[in-house]
Amino acid sequence: MRLGDVVNPEAAQWGKPLSGVRILALEQMQALPYATQLLGRLGAEVVKVEAPGTGDLGRSAMPAMTDPSGRSVGATFLRNNLSKRSVVVDLKQPAGRDLVLRMAPRFDVVAENFRAGAAERLGLAYDDVVAVHDTVVYVSISGFGRPVPAGSPASPYDGWPALASIVEAMSGAYEFKRPEGQPPVGSPMGGLGDIVSALFAVIGTLAALRQRDRTGRAQRVDLAMLDAMVAVLDVVPNFWSMGMPMGTPWPGILHGFRAADGWFMLQVLRPHQWPDLARAVGRPEWADDPRFATPQGWLDHLESDIRPAVESWAATRTKREASDALNAAGLVAGPVATDAEVVSDPHLAGRHMLVEHPRTDGVAQPVLIPGLPVKFAEVAEGPETRVPWLGEHTDEVLAAELGLGPAELAALRAEGVIA
Predict the structure, then answer these.
(1) What angle do CA 167, 173, 179 make, to 5 degrees?
(2) pLDDT score at 234
(3) Residue 304 carries which DSSP code?
(4) How far apart are CA 167 and CA 226, in angstroms?
(5) Which of 157, 164, 171, 167 is nearest to 237 (CA)?
(6) Under 8 Å CB-to-CB from 45, ≥6 apart: which residues?
(7) Does the residue 342 lie in any domain?
(8) Are residues 47 and 144 in the same domain?
(9) pLDDT under 70: residue ranges of the chain
């Protein structure tokens, strides 16, 4: 799917769920930008406030392309900022802070993911914004949250900076299946802590908009990235409380097996599945073998008996063929995909799950960005526009929102307040 394409165009007459919702985003990197991009895909208008010079730190991420002015546009920025407008304001200057506070009442949502304590130092915390906009939905994402409601105890990690890998580590994710004696592997699933936090922030924002409309009162949404990761890693506290701490081998088969062209995953955890697996791999006698009477028995004999037999059976099959055969036998299996196989997967193409962002530096291969996984019968998907160049919409937005004329904009630019 290319930028500008529209899927399900006949549904465009119904508009989008968040059409009319306006978001002022004081954001950088991934957790909040992913959330606001998702809200934008659902119809919200997003204005992004960036710092002079570097802008969003995601612009300096690698790999990168260059924009038409030769400035770097990093992968983190490219995959989190479609269809937004960029305004460059120096929030460290009182005049810059005042511009944001003057714009805030024109937006439904003001969202920030500053380092802990920064919003307060800048004069852009919840209390500052609600003082000028008494029906605002104010959304904060940080590593460890703020005390909400007021008077609640602060986190023992209050003040710590946090990136995705840090909250992933603190949630138990890195210990869950770490091989004994091996060090933890950082970011095994990319920015999982960012994406998970973003999804919960979107849920909170939607609920807060509904609550605001019901009560007519401002709403504060506070999202701690560590909380979000613990919510997703629900088995960590749950299993521990039931006597199965991390590191305990999971009874059953939840493992990868080698086929002729790579690996496939097989999950067999229930006793009724065992005869199906035995027949599927040509070992029907296993169904009555007392060694395999329980899932723990399967695990105990995985490397000595089960893996050799399954991989011998799969040796003449591709990982897709092995998965097809096992699924047809009533089991659950799927190929382990490489990156090249993901981007060529016909399922993803059919579901419009890869959006092509054109390069602006002469490279033919477009940048691929995941699309919207939520599909609607009566909502058109797209069109989306490219990411904004740094400060591309500064004059346009300030003129429209605050009525600033050319002379006022020139004066602010001369003082370094805008760029």
Answers:
(1) 135
(2) 95
(3) I
(4) 5
(5) 171
(6) 21, 22, 23
(7) no
(8) yes
(9) none
One domain, residues 154 and 294: no
Residues 234/236/238/239 CA torsion (nearest 10 deg): 140
- Convert the pLDDT of each residue in 288-323 to its tens digit: 999 999 999 999 999 999 999 999 999 999 999 999
Decide if 251 contacts 293 (C-beta within 8 A): no
Report how many domains make up the chain.
Answer: 2
Kindly state whether residues 332 and 359 are assigned to the same domain: no
Q: Has residue 242 been placed in a domain?
A: no
Do 142 and 218 sit in the same domain of this protein?
A: yes
Residue 66, C-beta contacts closer than 8 angstroms, at least 6 positions apart: 72, 73, 360, 361
List the CATH number of the domain containing 66: 3.40.50.10540
> Whole-angstrom Cα distance, residue 168 to residue 192?
8
Task: Please state, in angstroms and as integers, the Cα–Cα distance from residue 209 to each residue in 24, 108, 111, 136, 320, following that order.
Answer: 14, 8, 13, 9, 45
Same domain, 217 and 263: no
CA separation for the pair 173, 368 (Å, rounded): 27
The per-residue pLDDT for range 2-28, each reduced to its tens digit, is 999 999 999 999 999 999 999 999 999
3-state DSSP assignment of residue 89 = strand
Type and span of the H or E element at 127: helix 126-130
Residue 280 exposed, middle or buried by CB count within 10 Å (0-12, 13-18, 19+):
buried
For 153-194, what is each residue's pLDDT tens digit?
A: 889 999 899 999 999 999 999 998 888 889 999 998 899 999
For 76, the domain range is: 9-234+355-414
Domain boundary among 307, 336, 365: 336
Q: What is the pLDDT of residue 152?
A: 80
**pTM here?**
0.95
**Domain stop point among 271, 304, 336:** 336
Q: The CATH number of the domain where 275 resides is what?
A: 3.30.1540.10
